[in-house]
Amino acid sequence: MLQSTWKGFLEFYGGHSTKNSVLLSLLNQTTLHEVTDSKVVIITDSQGMSSFFVGKKTDIELALSAYFKKSMHVEFIIKQRAKRKEEPLLTYEPPIEDLFGRAGLNSKYTFDNFAVSSSNNVAFAAAQAVAQDPGRSYNPLFFYGGVGVGKTHLAQAAARTVLERSQESKILFCPGDKFTNELIESIQNKTTQQFRKKYRYLHILIVDDIQFIAGKQTIQEEFFHTFNSIVGAGGQVILTSDRPPHEIKNLEDRLRSRFSGGLIVDLQSPDFELRTAILLIKAKEKNIKIQMEAAKVVAEQISDTRALEGTLLSLYARILGKKEEIDLEEIDLYFQGTTDKKMKRVSPQDVIHAVCSYYGIKPTVIKSAIRSDAIAFPRQIIMYILRKELHMKYEEIALTLRRKDHTTIMYAYEKINGMCMKDPSLAEQIGRIVHSLS
Q1: Residues 261 and 189 placed together within one structural domain of the fold
Q2: Cα 289 to chain center, whole Å?
Q3: Residue 95 located in a structural domain
Q4: Which of 170, 188, 191, 307 places its Cα 20 to 30 Å from the Cα of 418?
Q5: Which of 249, 266, 283 finishes a domain?
Q6: What gap in Å lies between CA 253 and CA 232, rounded to an integer?
Q7: CA torsion 140→145→148→150, rounded to 10°?
Q8: Has residue 52 got a pLDDT over 70?
Q9: Residue 22: exposed, middle, or buried by beta-carbon count in 10 A (0-12, 13-18, 19+)?
Q10: Please, which pLDDT band fits residue 359 given cuts at 50, 70 and 90?
């Protein structure tokens, strides 16, 4: 039975590969030892042959996965060892940190250092469920929410847990714009097959900010097939976005349907208690001592979770060599003065650069005639901040941004002001930008 299976695979491989005649010739000299649901064990005649196959391991696993129509690993054992205990040829295991790096994972993202509260406990439980049983619990697992709420942290913590348990798992964390750029490069370089081999046979694929593929027909087409290939083989897909699938503009219906077919979890902005817990966790990680009451004051003042760490480091720099811990006195000194006083030192160009950096666009396009939503909206945000925070006159703002009519500025200010009243998340985004300036 095993040999007929192996013969069938070799015929399949020979019929689909025209460039690996040497590899096919050597594979014909091997014996199939074992086949499980996810692994194939091959007996080779010599150390040299085994070393050669190890170098071609990825190609062999891709071919095996295609033949068995599911993700398969391969192991090689040398004939002499097979007669004794059939020990695997390779016993060396790379450091786990290297595996994290290859998978694109940040080693600091773990379940242990994730602060849990009522705003994210459902997401935390879902991520743990996926980590325990990837491909079965929730597929895809879709996290959405604002900046700094923990979407990336949870997605990577789940993948990390799987990789720690099974170091042979093929896992990849990929920002949405990277997936787009790699596909474009593969099309330009005529290497789309290599691109597909990289993505379609993964056990776990995490795409951060999946909304970036919306509106790009070829990218969405490729991701649709990548998604189906992974899920169809029992793999797990985890997606993050700043909004739920039904709110992602220009997303194909078939992708929206796929994304909605798993579990969609909203991560809310952290409340005061959670921000305090996050700050204390960050302090412990960096071995910085901070009084509980001092941490509470910082959490009250800083709503952006990513700014918490920066504030903590700034405070630590102030006490270094002077005090052993951050206390209330140091906090009061740090936060003395108002935002308005600090904003007096901010120039219109500072606002332009801060907004462009936040939305990922070039400052030069703000003063251009481009009217696409991707440019017009950040431009209106700039108009709003210049008026509200720097108290510039409408005519001055129009001149700064090279607009012909100051009524455009008035319209933008009223529009953004009204949107902030209805949409707390937008108000929070603008608050972050203003805080970064001050």
Answers
A1: yes
A2: 31
A3: no
A4: 307
A5: 266
A6: 19
A7: -40
A8: yes
A9: exposed
A10: confident
Same domain, 260 and 141: yes
What would the pLDDT profile of 296-331 be if each residue is shown by its tens digit? 888 888 877 778 888 898 899 888 888 889 998 888
Q: What are phi and psi of 265, to 5 degrees?
A: -125, 130
Q: Are residues 375 and 394 in the same domain?
A: yes
Q: 395: which residues sit within 8 A by CB, 6+ positions away? A: 406
| 278/299 Cα distance (integer angstroms) | 9
Both 279 and 346 in a single domain? no
Q: How many CB atoms lie within 10 A of CB 169?
A: 20
Sheet of 31-35, strand order:
31-35, 39-44, 73-78
Tell whether 27 is covered by a domain: yes
Which of these ranges, 16-25, 353-362, 382-391, has the smallest mean pLDDT?
Answer: 16-25
The reply to whether 163 and 294 lie within a common domain is no
pLDDT over 80 (residue 82): no
- Model pLDDT for residues 140-153, shown as the tens digit of each residue: 999 998 878 899 99
What is the percent of the chain with per-residue pLDDT over 90, rounded to a whole number? Answer: 34
Q: Which amino acid is at 160?
A: R
Residue 67's domain spans which residues?
Answer: 2-84
Which single residue is written with the structure tokens 């008026």? 387
Average pLDDT, the chain: 85
* CA 393-399-405 angle, 5° bins: 85
Q: Which of 103, 34, 44 is nearest to 73 (CA)?
A: 34
- Domain membership of residue 118 (yes or no) is no
pLDDT of residue 338: 38
The secondary structure of the chain, three-state, reads CHHHHHHHHHHHHHHHCCCCHHHHHHHCCCEEEEECCCEEEEEECCHHHHHHHHHCHHHHHHHHHHHHCCCCEEEEEEHHHHHHCCCCCCCCCCCHHHHHHHCCCCCCCCCCCCCCCCCCHHHHHHHHHHHHCCCCCCCCEEEEECCCCCHHHHHHHHHHHHHHHCCCCCEEEEEHHHHHHHHHHHHHCCCHHHHHHHHHCCCEEEEECHHHHCCCHHHHHHHHHHHHHHHHCCCEEEEEECCCHHHCCCCCHHHHHHHCCCEEEEECCCCHHHHHHHHHHHHHHCCCCECHHHHHHHHHHCCCHHHHHHHHHHHHHHHCCCCCCECHHHHHHHHCCCHHHHHCCCCHHHHHHHHHHHHCCCHHHCCCCCCCHHHHHHHHHHHHHHHHCCCCCHHHHHHHCCCCCHHHHHHHHHHHHHHHHHCHHHHHHHHHHHHHHC
Give the distance, in angstroms, between the CA of residue 85 and the centroid of all CA atoms in the same chain.
Answer: 42
